[in-house]
Amino acid sequence: VYHLYLMISISKSDVTPPKMVSCPPDMIKLAESGTHSTSVTWEEPKYTDTSGEAVEIVQTEGLSNGERFVEGIHVIQYSATDSSGNVNTDCIFKLQVKGKVLGSVYA
Fold this sequence. Notes:
By secondary structure, this protein is mainly β. It has strands spanning about 20, 25-30, 35-40, 45-50, 55-60, 70, 70-80, 85-100, 105. A hairpin with a 2-residue loop joins strand 8 (about 85-100) and strand 9 (about 105).
């Protein structure tokens, strides 16, 4: 009597991108007195993934967290990539730096 055993390997393909948990809101900051810029910090965005594995989060647009931003509107964007290469680019926010003129604030 011969017995034939067949092993089947089923791999589940991850096609779901990471889910954004939090992203900084749009911000308005005032330039520091006597300058046309200010240092700005924010809480880094957070993502989770259905795989339970760590997600790589990278800032893809704008100056880095903690840098000096000049007057104007700046767009900041992050992307998150899971171990299967799925990408989420939903975290986008605007940072506006307003200047001061003789005690007044202008856009």
